[in-house]
Amino acid sequence: MILLSVFSTVSAYDPTVYPNAEEFLKSEGMTCKQATDGCNRVNIINGELGGMTEMYCEDIYGEGKQEQWSCLDMQNEEETIGFMSQNDRNYYSTLQSQIDTQEQERIISLISVYGDKILEKTSWNVSKSVKYIKKTVELFENAIFELSMKTPADAAMSDPDTQTYRILQYARFELQVMMHRWMKNSWM
How far apart are CA 141 and CA 127, in angstroms? Predict the structure, then answer.
């Protein structure tokens, strides 16, 4: 699950086509609202397949199985990070360029697993889950504050502290994005 493509757009005339749902979701699941398998329309919710039309198409489901997954409707920036101030959006974008892709994927994966555990713990009660995530965001904010207070105001942070600071900030943003999606999808 990568949010790096949040700011990109896909041309309506030349979408990327994937041979199966797994590859499609890995690449575009978090930025696509509605997709097609080459036959049916499929809603994408939080990077997962949602409701879909149920037409049988020989080309897609018959002997030849030629699935052609592509995005029909991309989420725009407003739907994914629109709740952030412009300043936070800019900083989030900057962090994405400063933290390597593998590290971003690792952070997002950890946050996703954590989010799933929170939802399970609260029996999928989104309101309770959001309270847990808000507390977690506060913990990240406290850790960021403590790290920044470790360095005098007139000195630069050490390279390891700077990287830790960036990772903590990025993880905080990703937690907020996840919480915002939960609230939006549950109509809170």
Answer: 21
